Amino acid sequence: MKKIILTGDRPTGQLHIGHFCGALKNRALLQDVYQTYIMIADVQALTDNFNNPQKVRKNVFEVAMDNLAIGIDPNKSTIFIQSLIPEIAELTIFFSNLVTIDRLKRNPTVKEEILQKKELFKDDVTFGFLGYPVSQAADILVFQADLVPVGEDQLPMIEQTREIARKFNKIYGQTFKLPEAKVGDFPRVLGMDGRKMGKSLNNSITFTDSPKIIREKIKGALTGKIGGKNLLSLFKQFSDDKKLLEKFKKQYNDNTIKYSEFKPILAESIIEKLEPIREKRKQYENNPKIVEKILFDGVKKARIAAQETMKKIKEKMFLNYFRE
Ligand code: TRP
């Protein structure tokens, strides 16, 4: 039996090279070794986009195409839509008894996000948003995942998932294994403006950006101590020329780096690596029916797995009232 991976993305915008370095590259490699489930977390996306459902709907397909473009193979991996697996919502309710409000308020990622979303949440926060780590635990545990490849900001979610699994096992009897997180080798990519690269911050490079746009974005990217270092990290990720990397690194360190020379070279390395991804994505963009079918089949497969786990869970919780 292959070990299981569950991972996912909130469909709030296109994925970008930050995701690529931090998580997506890993994801494509691991699908050969693990039984992989990739969830498009539309329900989670609604926790901070409940007032913009069209945006979430549109980006479900964008994120699906991004995953396919970076090499997720629907014959190896199962891509599916969270809201079509009602067992996740059901399990979220059961898990909500195992988590206190204080514990949720201490989750550092949620804490930071609430601050960022002041406009949406004003001085309070919704039940749904504060509780999304519980729903994320249900995402992971209903598929009995062994490994959860994620960006660094997601580590607190996996920690909470393990706590919930432990508590469930203790109260209702051994049911869940404790999943491990796996962070990519280059988790902290900054945007072109020096802030964290974000789907909605307009500072990222996406898989649909043309060479011209990539050149412009790199040209306009922040330099200096922080920006320059970030650009060097990107060069390390996207270029195979170690000698050139060392040269620019040295120049950066002794402050002689000429960005007018370095930036165009960096831009070309990114363009070259993203070209096959952009091409592959275009094929899916031109054939939306194929993407729909992949998602449809993925939901079917994922649902069967979730239902199997749910049956075991209900037995443990004395909720198995009638024989089938
Ligand atoms: N919270 C993740 C993010 O914002 C998305 C996500 C939802 C996820 N459910 C998951 C990631 C389960 C890993 C496992 O990127």
UniProtKB/TrEMBL annotation:
One GO CC annotation: cytosol
Cross-referenced Gene3D superfamilies: HUPs, Tyrosyl-Transfer RNA Synthetase
BP GO terms, sorted: tryptophanyl-tRNA aminoacylation
Reaction catalyzed: tRNA(Trp) + L-tryptophan + ATP = L-tryptophyl-tRNA(Trp) + AMP + diphosphate + H(+)
EC numbers for this chain: 6.1.1.2
One Gene Ontology molecular-function label: ATP binding
Record InterPro entries: aa-tRNA-synth_I_CS, aa-tRNA-synth_Ic, Rossmann-like_a/b/a_fold, Trp-tRNA-ligase, Trp-tRNA_synthetase
Primary enzyme class: ligase
PROSITE patterns, per database record: AA_TRNA_LIGASE_I (PS00178)
Record keywords: Aminoacyl-tRNA synthetase, ATP-binding, Ligase, Nucleotide-binding, Protein biosynthesis
UniProt similarity note: Belongs to the class-I aminoacyl-tRNA synthetase family.
NCBIfam families according to UniProt: trpS (TIGR00233)
Listed name of the protein: Tryptophan--tRNA ligase
Species the sequence originates in: bacterium (Candidatus Gribaldobacteria) CG_4_10_14_0_8_um_filter_33_9
